[in-house]
Every structure is written in C-alpha cells, then in structure tokens.
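In response to reviewer comment 3 from the previous cycle, which asked for concrete evidence that the modeling workflow produces usable outputs, we include below a single protein chain processed end to end. The sequence was submitted unchanged, and the resulting structure tokens are shown without manual editing.
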Amino acid sequence: MVSKRLRATALTVGALLLAAGCGSGDSGGSKSELKLYNDKGAWKPYFEQMAALGKQQTGLGMTPVGYTDEPTYTAFIKTSFRTNVKPDLFTWSTGGRLEEIVKQKQVAETTDIWQDSIKNGDLTEDLKKYYTVDGKQYCVPLNTAYWGMFYNKKVFAKHGVKPPTTWAELEKAAETLKSKGQVPFNHTTPTSLFSFAWFEQILAGTDPDLYERLSKGEASYTDPGVVKVMERWKSMIDKGWFSKPGDKADPADHFKSGDAAMVISGTWFNTSMTQRGLKQGQDYGFFFIPNVDPALPKRSLVFESGPLCSLRKAPDPAASTKYLKWWVTPTAQEKWANARGDVSGNPKVKIADPELTAVTKEAASPENRLVLRYFEAAPSPVLTEALSGFDKFLNKPETYMDVLKSIQKANEAYWKSN
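The workflow returned the following structure tokens.
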C-alpha cells in the first residue's frame, strides 16, 4: 500500500510539474508576476489579499498556488530542485526540514534582510535563531504562532466548566465533560500531520530539558521520562477523553456544531474559526496549557514560526528577494496577521482583535519558557517515523513501547551520521 501511494504521489507531482511548466514564464529574467507555492490551500483568500497589497506597494504581482496534501506538496518542492520549473517563493518549515534543503544548497540566503529588519525593529534576535543554519539566515517568517487550547465557550458554560489554570484542573474539566456525555478533546486535524501535539505538550510540560535533549540527539525515546509521557497520554485515551482518530471532519466544523469542547492547536487555528463565522471571545476562547509538573519554574509554551523562502536558483532572484523584504514590513504584516486573525513575527504590528492582543501579551511574559514545536525540533527522518508512530499509537494505544522503539531506531540512525 505504501508503494502504491508513493507511485500515486509521484504521478501527481509529475502532472503538476508539467502543468506548472506550461506557460509559467519561469525561464528567468525580470519578472513582474511571482508564484507563491504553499501547503496552505485554505488560506488562498488571504494570500490574494496580500497579492493585491503587494502589487500596489512593490509593483510585483503574486499568484498563490496552494496545496492541501502535505506529502504531495513536499514532493513537488523537492522535485523542483531538479527541474526547470522552480517556484519564485514557497512555504516550508524551520528546524530539521529547513536545514536539510539549506545543506543541499537550494535555499537563497536572507542574512541581509534579517540584519536590516532587526536593526529597524521589524524582526527580533529571538526569532532569528530559528532561521539560522551555520551562522547564516535563510527565508523570512511567513507566520508565527503559539500553541494552546481552543475551547467552546457555549459548551463550557453549559456544563459549568472554566478555563483551567493547573493541569489538575484541566483533568477535572475533562472528567466533568466526559461525565456529561461530551468528548473533552477533539484531535487537532483529521490526518497524522499533527499527531505529535499531545506528545510535545505533555513532555514539555513535564520535563522541558528532556524535550530539548531529544531534539539534539542527547536523549533516547525509550528514556523513562518519555515512557511516562506515553503512559499518561495512553491513560487519557483510555478514559475516553479524545475523539475518534479516524474522524475526517475539520475540528472547526465540530466547534461550529457544538460537538468539540477543546482542541489543542496553534493560534493560526483562529483562521479556521473565522472562516466558519465563529467569533473569539463569543463562540470560543483560548488558553495556554498549564504544565503537567506544577513545580517547573516557568510554563512551557510551544512556539512555531513557518518560513517563506526563495531558491538560490529562483527564476528571478532579485524579484523574489524584493518580495521577501516587503513581506516582513509592518504594513504587510499588519494586513497578513489581521486578515487571518493571528499574531505576527513583527513586533510593531498592531492586532485588531483584543482577545488576540491579550494572547500575544501573555505569550511575551517572562514567566514562559518558549519551546520549539516538535515538527521543527525533530530532525526530518525522526519526524517522519514519529508522525507515523504517533498515528499508530492513537489507533492502538497499547503499542506505545513499540512506537517509541521504532522512533528511537530512526533517532540513533540519524545522529550516528550527523
């Protein structure tokens, strides 16, 4: 079945490359119209709003080309490295996946953009490290997000549940909702793409140092601390606190119907909510998840920043660079953040939504310890094995030790040669 899927993906990518090459105008030279390939097909309206503003302010047009299937998108971008059909701009992820394509000498360096933007206050030193490989910067922030818990305010009010401030209160809320016939937690997505969400949250909230050692190859996935995380996660599943992992509906649809009480996700999930006519503060709320271990000195706050990149051999490197420079400016970022209902990597940006402003302010508190999202923290081969393993675990929780051993095998193999 795996080989069939790989062949299907290859055929799909081949067809897409052929279609993209027809009349794409990607033969080089000065361009006035750029194509921005992305794995966020549902964000097309927001990319189009940015395209209109960018055309007005830079003279460069931009057409978004969105994908909704992550494996197909990843295969398309990597295949473009070897063909003449190359994106002007494309979205990716930081961490191991960015380092991988940088070391293949595919990504355009953006060190100058970062130096200038930090100097004028449009980007921060704290954010720079996530875009740094071997002392140089690559790409710019497409989006910045903090992970926490979205909750259905009407469901909470109906059952007398309040946003928890401790892990014990979170468990009590889950018990109460379950006793009322309400499934407490909806899975983040209907695919395995974010199957890591509870693993990272429980581990970071229990032992953030162990979490960071894992990402550096300094700890084992069979470490007793990691095993305890899986056992805690399994106990939550065994109690019936989670929706069925095979559910194909978007969590935002469950929020609208009233079926979902809570879902763990990044602040970008606001976009899915607003697309369905739901209002933060009225229909739903958001809280940062308390540590499992209340003795930790700071709350572990999961953080991500997704990059917008260009290739070293882009069709028109100067045009792509010009667009990236504009993308991080306050005018562009204010439009981008407020259109989607999310935070921005540019500290100058004013968020129109007062609820989101409060979230941003709380995230900046020195009482938080920022923890890089597992999707970016784990090396690419380890991440691939982990996503598959966690997906298996969600369907068969009793397999947790087999899952950890499989991930550790990939972990050892990666760090042995890196």
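Confidence is low (pLDDT under 50) at residues 1-29. We consider this sufficient to address the reviewer's concern, and the full set will be provided in the supplementary archive.
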